[in-house]
Amino acid sequence: MSFGGKPTTLVDRTISNDGFWPDLQLAEFQASYRLPAEYLPELLVEGLTMGMGEVNLDLDLRKAAWQDQGFTSLEGSGMEKEAFYLASYRRAAYCRAKAFLLQQFATVNRRESAENLGKEAPSQHERFLSYSQQSVRVLQGRGRITAELI
Predict the structure, then answer these.
(1) Could you give the count of Cα atoms lying within 13 Å of 101 in the half-sphere of its Cβ?
(2) What b/e string do you get for 113-140 counting C-beta neighbours within 10 Å, with b at 16 or more?
(3) Nearest alpha-carbon partner for 8 in 33, 32, 30, 26
(4) Residues 6+ apart with CB under 8 A from 148
């Protein structure tokens, strides 16, 4: 259900990935991250595609390292912690997409409630970017914080 009382229709669409990282399901994204019904399916596809692409770029070195070890894809690889890595990848991509979509909501819904949501969007946007980056760091084998001696 959306903020305006409109029921959410889940869109059964697969967003194809690069063959190494898993394909993403738009309906799973909608259901898991409670996206309002006001979003057009095309905007959801764009947001998820952008989120997936940005996360893939962040993980280029990790993907290359795993490929050097002989893994051709993450899903079905049989590697240790495969399920955890798959969940982390999906969280990274879905949170990155939600951060993108949160910025769009004030332009999708023109009611007074949208103005209030628009005021809150920067903190929510940053929160979901942070969730995404935490998951990317997990996949990269890094902790939440990195310190270097200069």
Answers:
(1) 27
(2) ebeebeeebeeebeebbebbbbbbbbbe
(3) 30
(4) none
Q: φ, ψ for residue 69 (rounded to 5)? A: -85, 0
Beta pairing partners, 25: 14
| Rounded distance between C-alpha atoms, residue 105 and residue 82, angstroms | 34
Task: Please give the model's pTM, rounded to 2 decimal places.
Answer: 0.83
Report the alpha-carbon angle 34-134-47, nearest 5. Answer: 40
- Reading the block at residue 60, the tokens are 């280029």
Predicted confidence (pLDDT) per residue in 7-35, tens digit: 678 889 999 999 999 999 999 999 998 88
Residue with tokens 């903020």: 3
